[in-house]
Amino acid sequence: LLPPRQLNPKVSAFQRRFVGEVRRCEEMEKTFTFLQQELRDAGRVLGPCPENPRAPLAREALRVQEQSEQLAQELREVSRNRASLRGRLRELRQYLHVLREGQRFTSLPAPLGSPRRPRASSEREPILDPSLHQHLDRKINFVAGVIHPWRVSAFERLLWRACRGYLVASFVEMPEPMEDPATGETITWVIFLISYWGEQIGQKIRKISDCFHCHVYPYPESEASRVDTMSGLQSQIQDLSVVLEETEQYLAQVLDKVVLALPTWRVQVQKMKAIYLVLNQCSFDVTEKCLIAEVWCPVRDLTQVQDALRQGSYKSGSSVECFVQRIPTSESPPTLIRTNKFTAGFQSIVDAYGVASYQEVNPAPYAIITFPFIFAIMFGDVGHGLLMFLFALWMVLYENSPSLQQASNEIWLTFFEGRYLILLMGAFSIYTGFIYNECFSKATVGPPFPCEAPPRSLPELTPPHFAYSSAYLATHPSLTLDPNVTGVFQGPYPFGIDPIWSLATNHLNFLNSFKMKMSVVLGIVHMGFGVLLGVFNHVHFQQRHRLVLEFLPEMVFLLALFGYLVFLIFYKWIKFSAANSLVAPSILIHFIDMFLFTSNAGNLPLYRGQVPVQTVLVVLALASVPILLLGTPLYLCCRRRSLTPSFCPPPRLRSPELSEVLWTMVMRNGFVRLSYAGGVVLVPVFAAFAVLTVAILLVMEGLSAFLHALRLHWVEFQNKFYVGAGYKLCPFAFAPDAGE
């Protein structure tokens, strides 16, 4: 079922019937967000919901709200208490370290045997110099605390400038690193102890300490007081550590409750919120006791919908059963195409072009065969296709593995969702690789299966008959294999391309010519099939005028020009053999002369009356163009663009120059130059060849062939019959993992 249509368009979203319930769900979601954040701060991971709970009833929703708010309140209090205890414990430890380091500074004994030097009283002299007895009668005060290590230099410099040196400042790193409450990072604080005399200097020091956010602690004057204070601090630290440990344990218990309950609560509340949002789109009848909803539903599922409504009425205890009534409408229905894990990838390719209109011919079933086959025509190689097939087979066999399904890499998910498409592309590539007789870009020696064809050999002939003797072979690296010479040609190769072409110097010319003709034939067949599929759309939608104004002109144009080209290809293959191949005319020149309405004396005709036939075909093709362009618009009296024919360029075959270059530059050089002594070096050479094969030929060439096959299906096949102007049926459902 689609979500119901909006039957309250004039009612504000804040004035609808169930807006209060939606707000309650949103408040609970805020509470859930707080609980999840607390779990994240504690290093806990919230797992998925172990089951698929149903949407809660009103009483159950209130219970969920109360329990979640109670847990949130407990977490707030416990977290606040823990933060307070941590802060207090940190301050006590800092104070203890300050007293210990200060005790070390202020308890230094005077150096023995130091002479007494009478000097004039001066405020610029160090006040803790034991040789200055004239200052001993003055009261020395202390300011002690901790400061961030980044602020020590500026703090010391400002103290010296502001107090003009009338102080003694000592700095030392704290032995124990502690947390910075501002950032949460663990740093090594710096302890400072400042000795001074005079109240005015003391006020300046305290103000500067406040500006630098120093933690200043009281510093007892006598050593005995400092010892008593340190003893008390140690006792308080022990007590606070015990209380903090108990608080941490209680917090862990609360978090355990959240981990167990939160996944189920989230799914339940999300389902409840989705239901209330749908109910807000419904309208009430005149009695305001019955909800009315308008939805799209597949016809074959109407019985299931009625049973579900009847079951819902029974469970809710309603005295009146729900019912379904079909209503007429002029709107275009949505499109529902049922897929499975095998067909979903092919349907995604079609939907990327456009969603099928309602009851329009779907190209996806035909693309299951045509797409991997056209890809294989361009990518055909037994070795590369086998690697692709094995990679896709591995994904298919382990498709239920959670590690493969829940991967976060977008590129990997694209490969995984199209695993069946890749599987067929690899299988078809193996087949076309046998046709091309190529394995890892090299021709195989024999046929792919045993055959009864006689073995090939170079006949030993006498010199008058152009013999291939040992002396002749030693002086001629290139040979001309003339099939008209007896013994050279012993019949056609049983399957695929003859591997002897891999040794020829003109093998690229031969293969390109052969594959180009094959691509033209398959491309015309593919386009013609797309034009024929348009007949089903024309008949189903009762647009019979399009049969005359579009289908017939398209077929005339396609067959008169390119269908005739296919005929010439097969006719030349059948009429000419190796005996008279030298006098065979050029099809390309004939095709050019066909459009020029002329003939070429140097290019013999293929059959009698060829020029008049070609003239008639060109005239028919040209006459069909204005019908295609103007027929349907004039008939419908609107500016509607009809389908126009276009000839698809043949599938671009994977260039043998790339495979040949990769083999020649890597493996062949390794075999030729290294000889037997370099066998060990061939190990990294082969590794380089394997890596380049996967990186260049499999990935880059595979992607190129895929994109070209995609263009051929979208532009040259689907464009002939497929409009793709519909919209999907997105049913209202709850996902098992998210509850939406």
UniProtKB/TrEMBL annotation:
Belongs to the V-ATPase 116 kDa subunit family. Residues 57-95 form a coiled coil. It is a multi-pass membrane protein. It comes from the Eukaryota. It is found in: Membrane. This is V-type proton ATPase subunit a. It comes from Burhinus bistriatus. The chain crosses the membrane at residues 373-398, 520-539, 551-571, 578-597, 617-637, 674-700. Pfam families: V_ATPase_I (PF01496). Keywords: Coiled coil, Hydrogen ion transport, Ion transport, Membrane, Transmembrane, Transmembrane helix, Transport. GO terms for molecular function: ATPase binding; proton-transporting ATPase activity, rotational mechanism. GO terms for biological process: vacuolar acidification. GO terms for cellular component: plasma membrane; vacuolar proton-transporting V-type ATPase, V0 domain. Essential component of the vacuolar proton pump (V-ATPase), a multimeric enzyme that catalyzes the translocation of protons across the membranes. Required for assembly and activity of the V-ATPase. PANTHER family: V-TYPE PROTON ATPASE 116 KDA SUBUNIT A 3, VACUOLAR PROTON ATPASES. InterPro entries: V-ATPase_116kDa_su, V-type_ATPase_116kDa_su_euka.
